[in-house]
Write a structure and sequence with these properties.
With 330 residues, this protein is α+β, with helices and mostly antiparallel strands. It has helices at 22-28, 91-101, 159-180, 216-226, 235-238, 306-318; strands at 8-11, 14-17, 43-47, 50-51, 54-62, 72-77, 106-109, 119-126, 130-143, 146-156, 188-191, 230-232, 245-250, 257-260, 264-268, 275-282, 288-293, 296-300, 322-329. A hairpin with a 6-residue loop joins strand 13 and strand 14.
Length: 330
């Protein structure tokens, strides 16, 4: 059993450093057999015979973009030889992983049915910068001709380090925008019924991931990683907005417009980024309105017209197309 190094993730015996982009990682694995990928983040999915001393069938490496660092590495774990159709004892993986990582910080079992779609046992290990998770399935899963019985998942959580290659450029863009803005800049103001908030990327492993807003430095790192369309709102604009305020304004000295909350700004031209207005009619939920302008997400209460008025203003002043959709809030 190899030792665990927080600075790398493994493909078989090859150690790849956290911080390597997905594009560079793909180039480092020319002989690995590629497998079809699914939706979500850009992914490199390929056959993998082993990792961390465990027999595997495949690995999936995910990043927020092809030129962004790999942040997630997951491995489908092969069942033991001559396994039959019974539910496999979690100790088959827990014992070697505990030897490698120490006792798990959290572990548990599910009382649900023993089917391949369910997780019947799980365990997590929190390292300084990496979270390691084990999920044991309630049955065997077959995908692309290979059978797996459990999954091993690694999440690199050092977002500030991961963002460093793109953070400097993002901060420079924000500073350049602020330098072009004066206190007398003309703003079209829109007041939403629901307060807006700063962009941040929640840690869904936490009990209340949406309630704790990270500090400015971590938010800037997260924006550089996940929301690269977003810039800091210039102080001269932010000072004129409340938590309920959204501004549409022409950027001085150019053809761009901007949409801003107190915290975050996205630049707009007729070519994009994409703008989408979603109205959710009350059903099981209370309904709502959601306007996406690139990576800027603006929520509001159902029945409020502020975001629809903003969408119309974007079409009129920017010349950008706005996609409109309606659905029920189930």
């Amino acid at each position: 059993m190899p030792s665990f190094n927080d600075q790398v993730f493994l493909y078989a015996d090859l150690a790849l450093t956290w911080g390597l982009t997905l594009e560079a990682t793909e180039a480092a694995l020319p002989a690995a057999k590629r497998l079809p990928t699914y939706g979500g983040w850009p992914t490199l999915r390929c056959r993998c015979p082993s990792a961390y001393g465990l027999a595997t069938t495949e690995c999936s490496l995910r990043a927020p973009g092809r030129r962004k660092p790999v942040l997630q590495a997951s491995y489908e774990l092969a069942p033991p030889p001559h396994h039959g159709s019974y539910v496999i004892d979690p100790a088959y993986w827990l014992v070697p992983l505990t030897h490698l990582l120490g006792p798990p910080g959290k572990a548990g079992s599910s009382a649900g049915p023993s089917t391949s779609s369910n997780v019947v046992h799980w365990a997590t290990w929190q390292r300084p910068t990496v979270r390691v998770s084990l999920s044991v399935f309630g049955g065997l899963r077959e995908d692309d001709g290979a059978v797996s019985a459990a999954g091993l998942y690694l999440d690199w959580q050092d977002e500030r380090t991961a963002a460093q290659p793109s953070l400097a450029a993002a901060l420079a863009q924000s500073a350049a925008l602020a330098a072009r803005v004066g206190a007398a800049s003309k703003l079209l103001l829109f007041a939403t019924a629901q307060p807006q908030g700063p962009y941040f990327h929640p840690d869904l492993s936490q009990p209340a991931p949406y309630t704790a807003t990270p500090g400015l430095l971590l938010r800037q790192a997260q924006r550089a990683l996940y929301g690269e369309d977003l810039l800091d709102t210039p102080a001269a604009i932010s000072a004129r907005l409340t938590d309920h305020g959204v501004a549409l304004w022409p950027v001085p000295g150019g053809a761009q417009w901007a949409v801003s909350t107190r915290w975050d700004t996205v630049l707009l031209t007729p070519a994009g980024p994409p703008t989408d207005l979603l109205t959710l009619r009350p059903a099981r939920g209370t309904g709502g309105v959601l306007l996406h302008v690139g990576d800027l997400q603006l929520p509001d209460a159902y029945g409020s017209s502020a975001l629809a008025t903003l969408a119309t203003a974007i079409e009129k002043h920017v010349g950008a197309a706005v996609s409109r959709r309606e659905d029920s809030d189930y």
